[in-house]
Write a structure and sequence with these properties.
Length: 132
């Protein structure tokens, strides 16, 4: 059994323009869980993720805060207890529209490593700053 206290995990801060903190809690290289990647994403006030896709599905659960999910089909409001299932290669972006942190729990199956997860997010922020 693995017991993880999210508040004890340091995580990685992604810089503007996609200001958020990501805490990978379970992954092949985090607590030796090879099957899934489970993370918390803390999207800071008036910030967002980049618009992106994954090569595998993603389950997103809104834990706290409010915002919107932007997809190719449109924009949808999100609030606590909202669950989003993103198919592989489905474009999506999470936007915090308020002043409270938008806290997401995310699950990938099959797993990414924590390093793969952090690296993709950092590269998106660097590309945006470089104007790419």
């Amino acid at each position: 059994m693995q017991l993880v206290r999210a508040w004890e995990e340091e995580g990685v801060t992604i810089p503007a323009p996609y200001n958020r903190t990501i805490k990978v809690l379970l992954a092949p290289d985090k607590h030796d869980v090879p099957e899934i990647t489970m993370s918390y994403a803390l999207i800071h006030s008036m910030s967002s993720t980049d618009s992106h896709t994954h090569d595998r599905p993603e389950l997103i659960i809104i834990v706290s805060g409010r915002g919107k999910c932007v997809t190719d089909e449109g924009e949808f409001p999100v609030e606590p207890d909202t669950v989003i299932w993103c198919e592989a290669n489905e474009r999506h972006q999470m936007v915090n529209t308020g002043y409270e942190t938008l806290k997401l729990a995310t699950v990938f199956l099959p797993a990414y490593t924590a390093e793969e997860n952090y690296a993709r997010c950092m590269e998106a922020a660097k590309a945006a700053l470089a104007g790419k």
